[in-house]
């Protein structure tokens, strides 16, 4: 996508030129809002193929993704933010990490003290109670790079696809750096968590006996990149603030398209598959897109209906590549929303993080006198309400079908955790003696969240 090319171009040699153009403005009355005219220079814009800039009444048209959730760095000077915006930080960081690329040892970036413990954890990377938060601390914030590198080796994919280790390492560093560490939820740890869940699903008998190495490679890459460069706000927010990405992707799967195109940008930039025939690397890019686009939660019913039909008619045939691809899509969808299926101590942390991200969006909406999005109002929603609704209307229907497809110990464990977690949130809600949200109200909120009409949801 354009943004990627833009950053690429900056990294090549135009960084200083761009900085001198100074096409940047920020609202000095508000330290948390830095408005940047990323595309300020017409020549830059036309070179990278952006849609023409449009004027809008919204002052936050140029709201900067990277500073949306940056309250922890409220003292940083604008200049520092600027570097982050331009992905310069990532660039510097990458080159620092790349300086001593080892041929074999993926854990060289770890502090010596923690290396052993992180390695030890990796031996149990296929366990459903794998603590990704602990792993992230032990790897000094490099859980996504370390985990993905380990898994690609574990499955023998590096050798099989003759991946260049230096390119692969560079690719993974850039992927991790392109997640926004300031997002409470949609950051690299979420991506690592989804990748770990994907690994667990890939080992389920139904998949293990039918997937090809190509499927596995694709599944892992899609999991690692599926939320790349996520701004920490949702699609309706981008649409109502007239963000260029909404225009670029015509209000449809705006974020997912951006994640996909960002991933493609990094694949091309690092040349990870440049040794493959062009046709093959184009297929990788296309299939990656089809997996990432399946994570659009507003298309949940579409996928669920198709899954149900296959299961009812018992006609999934995993020798057929397109059926395998469909199962990979479902696996990725499950991995993406499996938080309620994790043990309480992990699940609870995810719930708090995702709610905080929603509430921060709500705060921004209130500040700019926009309508507050469903689930985003910290005055009227609670973590528990949101979780209970999410489980009832989104996660349970999906995992029920997944269990029909793959009725294993893992599936039963996941359903078991989800039941317990739901009960825990319910009892916490009652303790708080707040007026319990009426079920019908919750359902309507979730329909809005899914961008669906209520009858569609009731019908299944
Ligand atoms: C996207 O949605 C906005 C707001 O509803 C609308 O003004 C705009 O025309 C839509 N764009 C496209 C391409 O449909
Ligand atoms: C594979 O499945 C697709 C979709 O169901 C179908 O259109 C196609 O004919 C199948 N291919 C083979 C070789 O059976
Ligand atoms: Zn996700």
UniProtKB/TrEMBL annotation:
It is an enzyme of class 3 (hydrolase). Signal peptide: none annotated. The keyword Kinase does not apply. The active site is at 186 (proton donor). It comes from the Eukaryota. GO terms for biological process: signal transduction. Keywords: cAMP, Hydrolase, Metal-binding. This is Phosphodiesterase. It comes from Mastacembelus armatus.
């Amino acid at each position: 996508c354009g943004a990627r090319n833009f950053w690429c171009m900056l990294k090549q040699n135009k960084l200083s030129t761009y900085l001198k153009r100074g096409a940047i403005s920020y609202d000095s009355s508000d330290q948390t809002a830095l408005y940047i005219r990323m595309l300020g220079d017409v020549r830059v814009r036309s070179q990278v193929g952006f849609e023409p800039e449009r004027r809008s009444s919204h002052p936050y048209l140029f709201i900067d993704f990277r500073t949306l959730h940056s309250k922890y760095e409220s003292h940083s000077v604008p200049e520092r933010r600027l570097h982050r915006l331009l992905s310069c930080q990532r660039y510097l960081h990458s080159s620092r990490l790349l300086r001593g690329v080892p041929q074999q040892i993926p854990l060289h970036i770890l502090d010596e003290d923690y290396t052993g413990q992180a390695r030890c954890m990796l031996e149990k990377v296929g366990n459903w109670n794998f603590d990704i938060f602990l792993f992230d601390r032990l790897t000094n914030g490099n859980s996504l790079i370390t985990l993905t590198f380990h898994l690609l080796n574990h499955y023998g994919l590096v050798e099989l696809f003759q991946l260049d280790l230096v390119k692969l390492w560079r690719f993974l560093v850039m992927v991790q750096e392109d997640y926004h560490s300031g997002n409470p939820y949609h950051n690299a740890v979420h991506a690592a968590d989804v990748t770990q869940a994907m690994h667990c699903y890939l080992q389920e008998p139904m998949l293990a006996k039918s997937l090809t190495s190509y499927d596995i490679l694709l599944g892992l890459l899609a999991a690692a990149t599926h939320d790349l460069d996520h701004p920490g706000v949702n699609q309706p927010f981008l649409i109502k603030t007239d963000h260029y990405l909404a225009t670029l992707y015509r209000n449809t799967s705006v974020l997912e398209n951006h994640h996909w195109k960002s991933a493609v940008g990094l694949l091309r930039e690092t040349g990870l598959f440049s040794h493959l025939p062009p046709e093959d690397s184009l297929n990788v890019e296309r299939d990656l897109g089809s997996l990432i686009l399946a994570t659009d939660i507003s298309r949940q019913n579409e996928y669920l209906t198709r899954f149900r039909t296959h299961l009812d008619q018992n006609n999934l045939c995993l020798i057929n590549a397109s059926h395998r691809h469909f199962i990979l899509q479902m696996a990725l969808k499950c991995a993406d929303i499996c938080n309620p299926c994790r043990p309480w101590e992990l699940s609870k942390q995810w719930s708090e993080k995702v709610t905080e991200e929603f509430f921060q969006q709500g705060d921004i909406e209130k500040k700019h006198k926009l309508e507050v999005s469903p689930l985003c109002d910290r005055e009227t929603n609670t973590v528990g309400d949101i979780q209970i609704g999410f489980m009832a209307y989104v996660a349970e229907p999906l995992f029920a079908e997944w269990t029909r497809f793959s009725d294993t110990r893992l599936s039963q464990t996941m359903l078991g955790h989800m039941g317990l977690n739901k009960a825990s949130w319910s009892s916490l809600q009652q303790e708080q003696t707040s007026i319990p949200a009426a079920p019908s109200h919750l359902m309507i909120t979730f329909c809005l969240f899914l961008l669906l009409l209520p009858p569609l949801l009731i019908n299944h």
